[in-house]
Amino acid sequence: MIVWVGGAVERGVGENASTAIEVAKPQTFNGTPSKVSRFVGACRLYIRMRLRDVPVKEQIQWVLSYVQGGSADIWKENVIEEIETGEIKFEIAGEFLAEIRREFREGDEESVKVVELKKIKQEGRIMEEFVQDFKKTARRSGYEGCPLIEEFKQDMNGSIRRKLMEAKN
Length: 169
Prior knowledge:
By secondary structure, this protein is mainly alpha-helical.
């Protein structure tokens, strides 16, 4: 449904509403472990927004079209062969994306996230940017409760940390 409102066109929720929304396609993925999460996330979003009604096999082929170069080329050729011969089958595209994440992840994900978490500093960023970056990195770090709060306090700017400590007293 399209409604004319005060000189602007608004698209309502309906069968064709998602076609009006622009969704970024993923960047090509060459097997670099530090880029696998971003690639999988971009593919997952695009599939949800644009390819929801497309058969799983075609969704997987679409994802594979963005797997190019580096160590990913050899892996892609093996996967295509295994799919064609029926050695592997995916019921949903999410299973395939999880396989990509497993295949190309960087070491033990929890350990990697802990190291990344310890590297984050607020520095010149506004608090909201820092909080979003911290939350994203903390998700799979295994940190919870007090240890996570302590890490957060250590990573924020010293002047803000002091003001919080003064307000606490």
